[in-house]
Amino acid sequence: QVQLVESGGGLVQPGNSLRLSCSVSTSLSGLHPLRWYRQPPGKDREFVAQLDSRNRTNYAGSVRGRCSISADNTKNTIDLQIKNVKPEDGARYFCNVHFTTWGQGTQVTVSS
Q1: What are 56-75's pLDDT values in tens digits?
Q2: Rounded to whole angstroms, how far apart are CA atoms 99 and 87?
Q3: Which residues of 66-86 are buried (b: 16+ CB within 10 A; e: fewer)?
Q4: Backbone CA torsion sign across 107, 109, 81, 20
Q5: In angstroms, how far is CA 23 from the centroid of its own chain?
Q6: 37 CB burial (10 A radius; 0-12, 13-18, 19+)
Q7: How many other β-carbons are positioned within 10 Å of the β-carbon of residue 4?
Q8: Per-residue confidence at 6, pLDDT binned at 50, 70, 90?
Q9: In three state form, how does the secondary structure of the chain look?
Q10: What is the phi/psi pair of residue 16, to 5°?
Q11: What is the mean pLDDT of the chain?
C-alpha cells in the first residue's frame, strides 16, 4: 500500500514563501493525479493544486499565481510552493495520490 508523508510545515510570516514536500513510498508512476489539499481550522478540506500524468497543473483560485506543484520522479516526492503567503493560507496541508490515498498532513501557521 502506498504511504505518504508530508513535511515542511511550521510557522511562516505573511509575505514569505512556504515549501512543502510529500514523500511517497513507491514510484510516482501510475499514481496521478498528484494533489495537495488543505484544511483550515474549523473548515472543510479544500483542493489546492494538482499535477496530472501529462504534467499539466491546476490550482485553486485562492492560490493561483502564487502556487506551484511539482514532482521529482527520482526522489518520489511531490512538492508544493506558495509564495506571498497570506493569513488564509494557514491550514493543515495534505498530499493525495490516485484520488484515495492520503497522508497525515503537515501544519502551516501563518503569523507575524
Answers
A1: 999 999 999 999 999 999 99
A2: 28
A3: ebebebeeeebbbbbbbeebe
A4: negative
A5: 11
A6: buried
A7: 19
A8: very high
A9: CCCEEEECCEEECCCCCEEEEEEECCCCCCCCCEEEEEECCCCCCEEEEEECCCCCEEECCCCCCCEEEEEECCCCEEEEEECCCCHHHCEEEEEEECCCEECCCEEEEECC
A10: -85, -175
A11: 97
Question: Cell numbers of 76, please?
Answer: 518520489
Length of the chain, please?
112
Cell of 59: 490550482
